[in-house]
Each structure stands twice: as C-alpha cells, then as structure tokens.
Please model this.
Amino acid sequence: MGDVNPVRHFYKPSPDFGAIYRHNFNPRNSIRFHAIYGSLRGNDLDFTNDFQQNRAYSFQTSFVELAVNTEFNFFPYQYGKRKDRYTPYVTGGLGYNFLFEPEKKGTTDLVITFGAGFKFNVNRHISAGLEWSFRKTFNDYLDGLPNPPKDDAVFYHNNDWYSMFGIFVTYKFLSYLLECPAYEE
Model:
C-alpha cells in the first residue's frame, strides 16, 4: 500500500518464509519473536487511472523483517491440551525492516506490526494457524517512489504499508511444567 498500489489488498502476492519463537506467559498472553524473508512488487500498468498508466513505473524489492509482538488470546489456549486447544487472537508489536534494493543498497526502517489470527493444537507438540497482519512503515521507500517535494502551499506525505497473510506451524520443544498423568484429559 503505497504510491503504486494505494488501496488493493492481496495485490501481487508472493511467498514469504520465516521463523518464530513464542513464549507463553499464561493461557491468554504471549510474546513472539519472528524473522521473515519476503518480497514486494508492483506495476503502475496494473491500475486503470491515467496518471499511473502514463508514469508506467514498476518495482520489486526483497526484505527481511525482525520483530517482537505480543499476542492476546480471546480464549484460554495451551499447547497440547484438548480443553484449551484453539483460539482467535490479536497481535501487535514493533519490528525492523531491511530492504534489499539494488539502487538503495539496503534501506532500513522501523515498522509497527498488528494483526489477527486463529491458532489451534494439532497434537501435543504441534500447533498451526492463520494470521493476517499489517506493517506501518515510517518511510516512503518500499516502492522506490519518494513523496513529492513539499512546498509552502502543499502538505503531502504518505508512508508505505504492507500486509501479510500467513499459515504457520509451530513445534513445542520444551515443557517446563511436569504434568500429572492422573489429570490428563
């Protein structure tokens, strides 16, 4: 969502890959660290307005995002439990984005992340889910088109956004609490 694509969601999707580490404080709250590698692209010729058709600009850039998010589960949720085995959730946090464009030589930027998802236990150690999240950047470099120069008569500024829709699978490596088999569900 920037100068090339101002409004269209799921425009030119591309596969992204990443890793997450989640620490659950309790059945409702957790903190998550993630690293994601992906790419963004766009083309003015995919839109019908005359300005973009005349400009005919296109871009493609790769990025790495590192972020820390909090998650709030709407229902109590615990890995491996039958009773508390699924929940919708919301997430939000801060991240850092590293852009790899040939002409920019590695632009970096702070991003605010927020989104919503649904996760569920597949078995005692594996969980899976879906998430749609947004990133608010504090620059206009994602698509390579900077803001027009500011003058006294015009105030125009539009920082770029991007969103991700993802499927994730997590594996519970450690269990710090010993469970009593007499109370297993």
Remarks:
- The two ends are 46 Å apart (CA to CA).
- The chain has a mean pLDDT of 83.
- The longest helix spans residues 50-55.
